[in-house]
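__Record contents__

***
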Amino acid sequence: MQIFHSNLLDSFSDITHAFTTKDGGVSGLNYNSLNLAFHVQDDAKDVESNHTLLADTLGYQKASLVYMKQIHSNIVHIVEKNDNFKNPPTCDALITNKIDTPLMVMVADCSPILFYDKKQKVIAVAHAGRAGAFKNIVKNTLDTMSSKFNSVCENIYISIGANIKVCCYEVGIEIYKEVKKLDLDYGVDIKKEKYYLNINKILLKQLLACGIKKQNIDISQECTSCNTDKYYSYRDQKRTGRFCGVIMLK
């Protein structure tokens, strides 16, 4: 199994985290691939086996994992006692201060975001595709961490895993018009009358506007659409699996 760790988050001994790739699982979608999503017409037993493999690799109990039924919203959910592997909440961000409770975000081009508050010992994950970025899900997540757990942005560290980059994210004129209406046109590159969306640029500006320190933000430079041998890419493959970002307080 090939997984990646954020150098930024690796410096904290009281959390476990990782970003997965396609490598090292069992799946009917792609030979020897670590698909973690149940909703992509894969064999449920294979998907569960992949979760077991990842849990064993990272040292957590699969039953305690909380992932999401993601709907491209800006809904933030604080983990409750009934949230677990068999009962995932419907949302696009999760927050908890419970130890031994891993949180997972699944993606295939969208941005998997991990949050860690080193002072209040709070973690979060967020799923930020185009809709999540346009709806500023990172601000909703940070605001909820602040209001419910007394988090202060200057103490929060954030890692964004591999996602589709501006090189591959061509969008139509209707998306560009929406971007301009939202005052997010700084996140679009125009080349030869074509529009390319830069989600990372939007997310970075939103995080900085919330008060996150630039040195506390880590963003992967890998493009999922350019690296389909390593990552799932919905834009490139349509029917495809999901890789993940996961984080847990120890």
Q: What stands out?
A: The CA atoms of residues 7 and 87 lie 32 Å apart. The longest helix spans residues 44-58.
